[in-house]
Amino acid sequence: MAADTPVEYIKHHLTNLTYGKLPAGYERADGTVLQETQWTMAHSAQEATDMGFMAVHVDTLGWSVAMGLLFLGLFRFAAKRATEETPTGLQNFVEIMVEFAQGIVRDVFHGRNPIIAPLALTLFIWIFLMNALDLVPVDYIPVLAHAMGVEYFKIVPTTDPNATFGIALGVFILILYYSFKVKGPGGFMKELSFKPFNHWSLVPFNLVLELLGLIIQPVSLALRLFGNMYAGEVIFILIALLPLWVQWTLHVPWAIFHILVITLQAFIFTTLAVVYLSAAHEDH
Q1: SS3 assignment, position 153
Q2: What digits encode the pLDDT tens for the residues 144-197?
Q3: pTM to 2 decimals?
Q4: What's the rounded Cα separation, in Å, for the pair 276 and 30?
């Protein structure tokens, strides 16, 4: 995992562990030429790029699933041992999070749907746990992975646009589903065609505005989360390049501040998702 220059160090820490297909005749980073098409792990950032759209970021996928299982495991554990007499700290935490998610839904969701509150809870906790991985010192996991023969390894899924766009796409599918279900195909098309200007001559203009606004919803959700978390990760990497005594002087204050960032980004994503779903439930 050695890096000769700061630029190489930064690039290394921002490269995902990628699995994908390389074509026959491809010359790999070590000079090997593939005799046939092969599915393999990328050995360089260029190989990861050349694998194209169908490549999988193994580290992003693995850590996002792990944080999802951690969320489900903790909440299941607390639910099975819940008691009214002497609640544990974990039970108190779970109850606070449930009430917090219910509060978001109560404030911004104006329809009736029993799925929205559990969805809000899932989004907030899952994104928060993925964001919180950014607090792990940047060299710990990559060094351990390198000792196991893995060249590249990122552990913060939300610094990968594939993860943030994946979550946002899931929310977008729900927005479309409930827009059609609540308003009906005709009602949904009428809303797109006659807003903001209620006149038949302006239908093309309305469609452009409304479709653009609809598409921007998942894009803004994904890019806002990715951009903030990616910037925070870059700052941690830059701090790691400084002398050791300077690292701790800057790392601790930034980590404390970053706790607010990772919480705020989870809250913003969740709140906006509920706002968009609320609009999908409005039937005029």
Answers
A1: coil
A2: 888 888 888 899 999 999 999 999 999 999 999 999 998 888 888 888 787 777
A3: 0.90
A4: 49
**Residue 147, number of CB atoms within 10 A of its CB:** 9
Supply the pLDDT for residue 101.
94
Using CA atoms, how far residue 83 sits from 67, 95, 101, 118, 229, in Å, is 26, 12, 21, 21, 37
In contact, 224 and 265? CB cutoff 8 Å: yes
Q: How confident is the model at residue 44 (pLDDT cuts 50, 70, 90)?
A: confident
Decide if 113 is catalytic. Answer: no
Catalytic position from the list 28, 113, 193, 224? 224
Catalytic residue chosen out of the listed positions 16, 64, 179, 228? 228
Annotated catalytic residue, options 81, 92, 106, 220: 220
Domain ranges of the chain: 6-281
Q: Is 224 tagged catalytic?
A: yes
pLDDT given for residue 4 in this prediction = 62
Q: Given its phi and psi angles, is residue 25 left (phi above 0), alpha (psi -120 to 50 degrees) or beta?
A: left
Nearest Cα to Cα of residue 172 among 135, 130, 128, 216: 216
pLDDT, position 129? 96
**Residue 130 pLDDT class (50, 70, 90 cuts):** very high
Is the separation of the CB atoms in 191 and 210 below 8 Å? yes
Q: Which token pair is 41?
A: 């792990």
43 by Cβ neighbours in 10 Å (0-12 / 13-18 / 19+) ranks as middle
Nearest by Cα to 2 from 42, 11, 232, 50:
11
**3 state SS of 150:** coil
> Is 131 noted as a catalytic residue in this protein?
no
